[in-house]
Design goal:
By secondary structure, this protein is mainly alpha-helical. It is about 60% helix and about 0% strand. The longest helix has about 40 residues, at about 150-190. The radius of gyration is 47 Å and the shape is elongated.
Amino acid sequence: MAVSLPKLKYDDLSSKSIQEFRRKFGYYLQANKLSAEVEEVKLAHLKSAIDFETDELIQSFNLGNETCTSILDALYNHFEPRKNTVMNQFNFFRCQQEENESFQSFHAKLKMLAAKCEFGEVTDTLMKTRIILGIKELELQQFLLRNSTSSLEDIMNHCKNHEEAQINQSVLKAQPGSMQEAAVSKLKARRIPNHVHQQVDKKSAEPYQCRRCGTKHLPRSCPAFGKRCKKCADINIIPLSLLRKMGIHKRNLKPCRLSITSQRMVDSK
C-alpha cells in the first residue's frame, strides 16, 4: 500500500515543522521503497512536496549540488532561532523540581536543557550536580549530598527508588481507612431493616396472654407489675392464693415459689 507524499508549505515553515516533515518524508521513502533510489529521484519527490514560495527560498540559499539532506538542513538552519549558550546555561543551572513534579519529568527537563548548553564531556557531572541541588525532597537531598561521589546513574536510580517508596507508603497509609470504611459498611448491612421495626411495633400494640397475671392485656400493662410478694419478696409476682381468687388455675403461670412449696406440703398431707 502506497503512502501519500507529505507536504511542506511556506506559510507553515518553522524549525519544528521542518523537523516533522523530515521525519515523515523519510517514512514516505521507506514505505514506497524509494530509499535505495538515486539522489535525483528522491530529490524530485522532495521538490514535489514543497510549494512555489518554499522552492524560491531554497534557490536563494545557492546550495550548488542540491540533495535532500542539504535542502532540509538549510531550511532548518534558516528558521532555527540563534542559539544563546549563556542563556541556555542560565536556565539549566536555575532549573528546580516543581511541586508535584515526578523525578522522571524533572530529569527529562534537565536533559533537554543540557542538550542546548554545549557542556561536552562534563555534561554528566553537571547533570548530577543539578539533580542534587534542584531536588525538592529535603531528606533525599541530604542523602545525595552525603553520597555526592556516586555516579549519575546511581543518583538517578536512588531518586527513582525513593519516589516509588513514597508512593507505596501512601498506599499503605490509606489502607486502614479503607478497612474501616468496609467495617462500617458491614455494620450498616447488619442493621435491622425498617420494615422489621414496623412489624415489631405493630405486634407490641396488640394484647397478649400474660404468664404473670394470667390475663390478656397490652404490653407494659400487667397488674402484677411492681407488686412484691409478701411470702417470697419477689417483684412482679402475684401470690398463688390471689390467682385462685381471680379464678386462674393455669399451670403455665409464674406464681410465688413459696406458695407453690406450701401447696405441695398441703397436698402431701
